[in-house]
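look at this record:
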Amino acid sequence: MATAPDVVLIDAGGTNIGSVRYALERLGVDAAMSDDPARIRAASHVILPGVGAAAPGMARLRASGLDAVIRDLTQPVLGVCLGMQLLFEHSEEGDTPCLGVVRGQVRHFPRAGGLRVPHMGWNALVAERDDPLLYGLESTDAHAYFVHSYAAPLGPDTLARSDHGMAFSAVVRRGNFCGMQFHPERSAAVGARLLGNFLALDPAA
């Protein structure tokens, strides 16, 4: 019998941490919430949820020293929503230097053409390349639930894109660092599949 993953949710003040934890419970995983560096380092999988703005999000991580902890992690790490944006090098939101473990700059959606911002609601996911994180979604009409005003353009670490006035990164991966711009915990079967795929990533890979 396979050993259940030891998942830690980084408690950095994200308001969606409870809903992410509940989504994991539906997958049979009782995730711990922690801001303790030793506990985070010992986990098999780490999730950085987040709702809010980049500057205060990074300020919380720096104040607790978790920014350095996250950068040094070697097990699978998943950033969700703001948590994904914080994995990048920089965000236009508050002119914020971020963790820099994924290449690219997070930018505000275009402010022209009557585009509705924030981007809110269901939108299609389009795979850019194969990856175990997308297993089972390659040939499906996959949609996920988004709420955000800032997004990462397509880049070398993009696994799947979505479109809202521009193409942007919906799922990214660079080594052990993964990100989902949407809310998998609110994305029904597609979100559950993607969370399950993350939990299936080998911590020793």
About this structure: Residues 7-199 form a domain with the Rossmann fold fold (CATH 3.40.50.880).
